[in-house]
Amino acid sequence: MSFFKKLKDRLTRSSSKLEEGLDAIVEEGAETEAPDPEAASGPEAAAREPEPQAAPRPVPVAPALDIAPLPSPGAPVPPATSEPEAEPAPGAPAKRGLLDRLMGRTAPVAPRRVLDDEMLEQLEELLIAADMGVDTALRVTANLAEGRMGRRVSTEEIKRLLATEIARVMEPVATPMPLFPKRPQVVLVVGVNGSGKTTTIGKLASQFRAAGKSVVIAAGDTFRAAAVEQLQVWGDRAGVPVMTAPEGSDPASLAFDAMGRAEADGADLLLIDTAGRLQNRADLMEELSKIVRVIRKKDESAPHNTLLVLDATTGQNALNQVEVFRKLAQVSGLVMTKLDGTAKGGVLVALADRFGLPIHAIGVGEQIDDLDAFDPEEFAAALVGLDA
Q1: pLDDT tens sequence across 238-292
Q2: 343, 253, 342: which is closest to 298 by C-alpha?
Q3: What is d(CA 293, CA 297) in angstroms, rounded to the nearest whole number?
Q4: Residue 57 Cα distances to 38, 83, 215, angstroms
Q5: pTM across the whole model
Q6: Rounded (to 5) percent helix, strand, coil in the chain
Q7: Whole-angstrom Cα distance, residue 184 to residue 295?
Q8: What is the distance between the alpha carbons of residues 220 and 250, in angstroms, rounded to a whole number?
């Protein structure tokens, strides 16, 4: 299954209210016309005068029953003859097949609605409900309406217009994580509790390893034993070494030692996991700052990438998380996970619009191939329920 198909199936399954809402908005003020099975398509057909109908043909009356005398024995039997099919009268319309007539009578007409201020307001409310945020929703609908006010549009046209505007917002931030010649390239992975950091690190390590890169993982979440065990499982699966420390150890010290190990091994990448931190816990956030200070003693340019992993189900709270982590860890890029959950998906558009931070990847599940590079056009199409 392609990643877009997976994204569309899982994202629209959890955010189908957006697609249903678009249908309802158009149908609420829809203007429909009954289909004309005989009319040709196009504006010329609408303006064409109806052609005069041919005079009805007289219906022949069946003759009275006439019994012919039986032929005498030995007489030759005359050959059976069939009457030729009657020719249509001149000027009569050509006879259409049953399939044509059936299709002509049942061809559906998509409802269309005039794009006006009321419809725009309803679209804005729908996008806000999809976690897109007020400012972004207003900007997207304003761009959609430019030069189109007063036009009659269908649901399909609205979906395509929305997908185009959403992709336009997200196009500048759709960039893969940059790789540098610096060895080891230190990648610090941060985020709040339960955002999917550990799983994301395992998937990245496996994918980089499959691409021919040598990788080392540092299990810096020393407060949660399950996180270390989870990383070790991913490390074994990907053939990547995982550096650990006893539970409760100083994560900054482990990060420092991991840099020395990665340098000695000639590793291309060092992925450092960190404990989940709530942005309102000053002590935990200070510890994250300490990790950054300590690894810079070994390499003042480190970390070379700081990935903030965000849980899509948190909605607008993701914006607050970006604000806080940017101040403490100089976030260089985002990874959005759990788009297969109860997420509405629109928060990713709000993040792109407000911060302009690169979105490196998105996740839609727990399997290795459920994390992939972010594609704005595919995401926009999946969000509004379009096919590729």
Answers
A1: 889 999 999 889 999 999 999 999 999 999 999 999 988 665 667 777 888 899 9
A2: 253
A3: 7
A4: 21, 18, 87
A5: 0.77
A6: 45, 10, 40
A7: 12
A8: 8
